[in-house]
Amino acid sequence: MPQLARRIGRAKPSAIMQVAEKAKRLKAEGRDIISFSIGVPNFLPGEHVYAAARDALAKDSGQYGSNRGADLLLDAFIEHMGKIGLTGYGRVNVATGVGAKHVIYNLAEALLDEGDAIAFPTPYWTSYLDIAEIVNAKIELLPCPPEQDYKLTPAQLDAALAKKPKVFLFNNPSNPTGMVYTKEEIAALADVIAKYPDTWVITDDIYNRMVFDGVGYHNFVHARPELRDRVIFIDSLSKTYGMPGWRVGFMAGPEAVAQAIVTMNSNHITNVPEIATAAAIAALTGPQDVPTAKCAEFQAKRDQVMAALAQIPGVVCPRPQGAFYVFPDISVAFGRTHGPTGLAIGNDVDFCNALLEAKGVACVPGSAFGEPRALRISYTCPTQQLAPGLQRFQEFFAELQ
Ligand SMILES: Cc1ncc(COP(=O)(O)O)c(C=O)c1O
To answer: Which GO molecular function annotations are given, in alphabetical order (predicted)?
Structure first.
């Protein structure tokens, strides 16, 4: 049989999906499962979004669309960015894709030759590693442990950029930690970035509308507008609008980079489909009450999760201020055994397996994100499941010997 390309050998199936699959299987077997695993928002967009999609269906053009994205969608996105203070971008600076993941993949192809270095903080969103491996980039991980609130320091960034990676990839608010950088922290990192003009900077900030406690969303371009000639901002409808399956993502940045994405699109997807485009325009320009209400709900759920974790001796958890994840350090459980089942817990994967077996609660092991001392709780489950899920989590800890 002929061989597959070597890059496929480097690509791994998502660890997050593996947990989700196991939880689904147990559920199908009749087990009572509470899922804290997949990072889906678990709400639907407003009715105006469906109305726009139905209208687009009725008026189907029967044509291919623009490789960059329909003009009305680009304009809606540019206006949307303006609301978070990212101004001065024109249609030539933006491009769309089939979700942010696709845009990031395209950027990796567009910016990285084989062997070029890409630096990003750990914990990281799993796909960063997988995409970098597929394009055969040299990966420089910047460890940000719980002791430093999972945040990158200016000194760390300085040391990393001094090695001149081709790309620095940054994620704020963070998946998996939920951490949000303050205005001052972003300004300090931006000062470092300004010293190293040979590095592209991707800010994957798709959770930028899900920020709590009045911290606000801040980008390197806010702090230093001159950085816009190499900062590439990523956004998506998936989390903010409860539209992960509609697959609409965006980038904004230098004209040459946006043009590169257009070229990539022209060679595979051609265009974001017309119906998804209409729905996206409606989401961006229509009433914002659904995302606003969900942000408030997630902040309250964050508080509920943190209150439950605070009652477990030895579990350390920096307080997230955005997205919908909490990333506790559960390493206090390592080397112990779950009494009732006799399951031994040597690491985060054992912990998550035992928790799922014993209590029917699905979480993602931290090693999927490059931090094996932790696990990720995604708390978008129906409100009535959150308290029982957290209670089972506490019981599991209480039963460790
Ligand atoms: C940090 C981060 N970036 C990008 C994505 C991908 O989003 P999309 O659904 O737009 O592809 C996700 C999805 O989980 C994410 O958490």
So the answer is: pyridoxal phosphate binding; transaminase activity
Count of Cβ atoms closer than 10 Å to residue 198 Cβ: 9
Query: Over the stretch 133-162, which tens digit does the pLDDT of each residue have?
Result: 999 999 999 999 999 999 999 999 999 999
* Pocket lining for ligand 1, CB < 6 angstroms: 39, 99-101, 125, 171, 175, 204, 206, 236, 238, 244, 249
Alpha-helical segments (H) within 200-288: 220-223, 255-267, 274-285
Architecture (CATH level 2) of domain 48-285 = 3-Layer(aba) Sandwich (3.40)
- This prediction has a pTM of 0.96
Q: Domain residue spans in the chain?
A: 6-44+290-398, 48-285
Query: If you search the block for the tokens 């009749």, which residue do you land on?
Result: 30
Alpha carbons 278 and 283: distance in angstroms, whole number: 9
Torsion of CA 204, 67, 116, 200, to 10 degrees: -50
Q: What is the C-alpha to C-alpha distance for residues 203 and 206, in angstroms, rounded to an integer?
A: 9
Question: Which of 236, 325, 380 best tests ligand 1's pocket when mutated (most atoms within 8 Å of CB)?
Answer: 236
Nearest to 294 by CA among 390, 380, 204: 380
DSSP assignment of 278-299: HHHHHHHHS--HHHHHHHHHHH
CATH class of 6-44+290-398: alpha beta
Tell me phi and psi for residue 201, to 5 degrees.
Answer: -125, 120
For tokens 């043009």, what's the residue? 259
Query: Beta partners for 157?
Result: none
